[in-house]
Amino acid sequence: MSDRKDPYRKFRFKVEYDGIVSAGFSEVSGYDASVDVVEYREGTEVTTPRKLPGLTKYGNITLKRGMTDNMELFNWIFQYIEKGEIVRKSITITVMDETGAEAAAFQIINAWPMKYSGPDLNATASEVTIESLEIAHEGMKRTK
Fold it and tell me: What does the record give under GO molecular function (predicted)?
């Protein structure tokens, strides 16, 4: 018997925020982490500098979904634009396996919206209207 493990498919996922699972997102992209490199060299050392770890940075996450009468994403960013109140949320992105069981999960910490994009409209097209929200955050961790 084989212990082969197939990779998870990228179209099986769910997004949860405020304790509510929100289905219907067609794309989640941009979550990454990187560590800046700080070069340091004393005058008496060889010409190659030492490389030290610097600040950790996280990429912005973009959520895309078909536009409906649900205004949660729009209202989240406009709460800041209209009232000056930024609301930070924890977001969990969960990848599902072939059976629909949770296979991997990423927790996004202190997320807040920084850009909302409404749909591109075209009278000759037949595609679904897509809205997107770009989210800044202060960290992520893989919890599963």
Answer: structural molecule activity
Separation CA 84–CA 92 (nearest Å): 25
pLDDT tens-place values along the chain, 144 residues long: 567 777 877 788 888 887 777 657 888 999 899 999 999 988 887 888 889 999 999 999 999 988 888 888 888 999 999 999 899 999 999 998 888 888 999 999 999 999 999 888 999 989 989 999 999 999 999 998
Q: How far apart are CA 120 and CA 130, in angstroms?
A: 7
Its pTM stands at 0.82
Question: The tokens 């960013």 sit on which residue?
Answer: 77
Is the CB of residue 144 less than 8 Å from the CB of residue 80?
Answer: no
Distance set, CA 44 to CA 41, 49, 51, 52 (Å): 8, 11, 16, 18
Domains of the chain: 13-142 (2.30.110)
Q: Which residues contact 64 (CB under 8 A, 6 or more apart)?
A: 25, 26, 27, 28, 29, 130, 131, 132
